[in-house]
Amino acid sequence: MIRTILTYPNPELKKKSAPVTVINDSVRELVRDMSETMYHAPGVGLAAPQIGVHQRVIVIDVSGSDEVPGLIVAINPVIVHAEGEAYEEEGCLSVPKYAANVRRHARVVVKALDLEGRECTWRADELLAIAFQHEIDHLDGILFVDHLSPLKRELFIRRARRLAESDGEGS
Ligand code: NI
Asked: Exposure string (b/e) for 14-47, b if CB count within 10 Å is 16 or more?
């Protein structure tokens, strides 16, 4: 089922998500809904809190731009190693119509459980490395705009307020 994606400044996006303790039917259904919602948007990644579920689950598919495999499901993902620097433009389904460059690590090693409860390790670079960092941030209530410099962040907040006001006026 396609779920509604919460958008900034919804306070649900600021909450920290809890680890999944048991991979049961409700987690499998969550992952199905998240994948459907991500592909429908369309986007390259989605974290459970973006649909209002505060569990540590992310889905990623960056295969449109690279030869990496398709859908990645990561439950309780943890970055166990990070190195290098990247500064690429990012967007987010929860921050529509906005993009900005963000400082990230260029390469990460991520450990997580898959839907069968097996521990998986991904050695990621390029877009996949950025996607893992972006989606795992969501699980800690962090949006990519939280990484902007104070000045850029202030401009973003003012812009978001202006957009919210003009929406309110129906213009
Ligand atoms: Ni996002």
From this structure: eeebeebeebeeebeebbebbbebbeeeebbbbb
Give the pLDDT score at 164: 86
Tell me which residues have their CB within 5 A of the ion that is ligand 1: 92
pLDDT for 118-152, tens place per residue? 999 999 999 999 999 999 999 999 999 999 999 99
Q: Which of 135, 154, 165, 169 is catalytic?
A: 135
Eight-class DSSP state of 5: P
Structural domains of the chain, ranges and CATH numbers in brackets: 11-169 (3.90.45.10)
pLDDT score recorded for residue 171 = 47
